[in-house]
Structures are given as structure tokens and as C-alpha cells.
Specification:
The chain has 64 residues and is mainly alpha-helical. It is 55% helix and 0% strand.
Length: 64
């Protein structure tokens, strides 16, 4: 069963990763902006295939 404290809707996961990877926001800034813990931000960024984001693939083709 997934950890309920780390659960986010898909659009929020994508938005969170974009804030850090594309816009250059630090993980700490993103955590404060979203109102969550730093470890949750790190968890979702580590799970996201950053290579797809760098190539400009649409998030519709990438599954979190």
C-alpha cells in the first residue's frame, strides 16, 4: 500500500517536478511552495524519469 503522506494527484507530481527540473527551483523552495516536507519532494523527483523531461517529452507519455 502506498504511503498516504506522500500521495499526490498526478498533475501535482508533474507540477512539482517541473518546478525543480525545468524552472530551477530548489527542492527546499518547492517543498515550502507546495506546503509539504522536503523528503516528499525528493521522493517524487527521484521517481520521475528526468531524462524524459530533458528531452521535452510530454507528461502524457511518461508515467509516474
Amino acid at each position: 500500500m502506498p504511503d498516504k503522506r506522500r500521495w499526490l494527484p498526478r498533475w501535482q507530481r508533474i507540477e512539482l517536478v517541473q518546478m525543480c527540473v525545468v524552472r530551477g527551483m530548489t527542492r527546499r523552495e518547492a517543498a515550502a511552495w507546495r506546503g509539504m516536507s522536503l523528503s516528499t519532494v525528493q521522493y517524487w523527483i527521484d521517481r520521475y524519469p528526468v531524462r524524459a523531461m530533458e528531452l521535452g517529452m510530454s507528461h502524457a507519455t511518461v508515467s509516474l
